[in-house]
Task: structure prediction
Amino acid sequence: MARAGTPTAFDDVDPKRRVRNVALTLVAIGVGVLVLMFLESLGSSKLSQSLALFAIWGVATVSLNLINGTLGILSLGHHGFMLIGGYTTGLLILDEAARARILTSARSTMTEESLAISVTNMLRGIGLDALTTPDTLWVRFLIAIFLGGLMAAFAGLLVGIPSLRLRGDYLAIVTFGFGEIIRLSASTRLFAEYTNGALGFPGLTSEFGKSVWWTFGILAFTVFVMSKLKFSSYGRAMQAIREDEVAAQAMGINLAYNKVLGFVISAFFAGVAGGLWVSWLGGVRLDFFLFQLTFFFLVAISAGGTGSITGVLLGTALVVFVRQYGDPLEQTYTLQQWLTYAGATLVLMTGLAVLFRSLRRLRPRFHWSAGVLAGAAVLAFVVAAIDPAFLEGTFRGFGMRAIFLSVLLIAIMVFRPEGMIGRAEFSWSGLLGERRSGPTDDERTQDAWLTNPVLNPRGSDADVASGSDAPTAPGRSAARELDVGDERHPRDDSTDDERRG
Amino acid sequence: MAMLEVEHLTKSFGGLTATNDVTFDVGEGEIVSIIGPNGAGKSTIFNLITGVYRPDAGEIRFEGRSIVGTGTNKIVDLGIARTFQNLRLFTNLTVLQNVLAAQHHALNSTWLSAVLRTPSYRRQEARMREIATEKLAFFGPRLMSFRLNQPVYVLSYANRRRVEMARAMATGAKLLLLDEPSAGMNPSETKEITKIIRRMRDEGGYTVVLVEHKMGLVGEISDRVIVLDYGQKIAEGSYRDVVNDPTVIEAYLGKKAAAAKRGELEDVDEP
Result:
């Protein structure tokens, strides 16, 4: 008999349900593939680009989440790791025509030797000419992003080392500094031979970066590795470090090893994301890797739920949606139109405020602030309807996307500081309502009795007996054998079954 | 040979000598209490043994090997684990995860095989879970069942103390350093924790060194009591001998009160 609450399998799931959960996951992946096929068939390049961007940024945010969420170190240098992966991938898969153009360009800083670095040449070098044909480009791309990931992982190792001596804000500044050093040194004379300085590599293939299949495939792989890691002993050790470094060390956890490991794994996937990112953009340039990129990832992580892979993906979807579909916000409208839109937004906010309060069961449901919002909405509509002379001009909402995202972040931080779904992860058991959120009544009674037997009597013996008729099997429960054995835990009570539901 | 030997241990912070030439040893299977007024250097001794601080002078030997200069996490590998005076649990992790995290240091697989869930990793993980439930069962049924998957932050203070002790036990240590195990517990919980500490030794085979202020607990379970005052060892011996020692009474109650109260030991209970 499997005792509920005593997980015997991994990820705290009953072994019988694991098979079903794996089946459900496979079905979900199948459905996901079908949905992607359907969306592809709509033929909207904007939509498939946005989906691909979501997957690419998803790889980046899920990997950043390993440092920021699981390990609890605020890292601000993710764009640096992505840059390394991006430049490595760019250099390795650049096609012959583009190489020739760079070589003949007067402003190019690259030499013949550095331009000769490519996966094609590597494969030729080891005699695998079969993989250098145009229709095996995907193999070369995979090799390139893998090598890009490795390069970034090496940088992660270097950045991870100061993390052994620093904590908190100080470490955050160091990671930020490293990110900037990587970005700026890419354009210096030292590396310009390999990065082509400020010019970068234009004309990269977008075949992979804009393909939903490639990007979602790699995202699935990333999520697989990260979730397996999080729910392994290593993940627990990293979370223990996040919770309390001193205690983690006092429990034998090697802080140095686990922190650097986190940095290296995270940087590897950041490098892979960088490779996909340059492929999505169709070129490599320094300004594709500004700190802004890391900022977007941090917004995605905080909005979704720091530490939760599910939440981080949710946050990424939000950020990518605003980035890709927020352009109406930046158009030129008349002030009257702006006022009408503001009124509509206020109505929406009023509705959300009321919904929020009723979901949280806050009273009164119609708080005065909702009245203020509604009043402002009415005012906006009335003024827009009267259309006074001062509403004649036009206004271009330049930067409204970033403002919108920031306001959204503020709202999430105020009302739900733990992010949209907090630390929770998606699970089939959770979705199907199987996860026990609290004790049963019997367990509650038992617990209260253990805490204070005088104040919380367990009721008459008859009550106890009706709870479990089955005799207690000898040796079934470890707790039974090792019971505290004082007068408050009479050995003849037979409530094991009640307790363990 | 004693399990733990501490010789001439000295540690000062600036001008304050927290531990001054302290020598004692702990035999295998013993329960030794370290008592003393606040600021006597009891917790410093724990921090020195577990490698949090490096002693200025002196020697600490565990099972005959010097452990001075060994890293805190390596000392756990050797077999010494501790609890903290102010709880230091992994608050957002569940009870089970807390106790599992303490076993990570003994895990013998790489992160890659953990990600791939190789059979060897699976076996070790299952074993870790067995050990975790076994250690939590020491505290009766209260940490089992639904509590197992509750995050630690919802637990009561007494339960958190119990989880911390279970966590220290789960590291696989032979020597447990318990820093005020009964702090914040009511009298009946204290009585229970006293029994549990004794069972840790009798059934679990642990050697226990504890720092404690509740003399009832100390008197009931200690094989030996070491009294510290101003970083120095002022007495050592059985509980009876130690509490009758005029130096100890003086340290706790002051010279005048010691003279007045000579012989009446019950007042030592709440220093």
Summary: Residues 449-500 of chain A form one domain. The two ends of chain A are 11 Å apart (CA to CA).
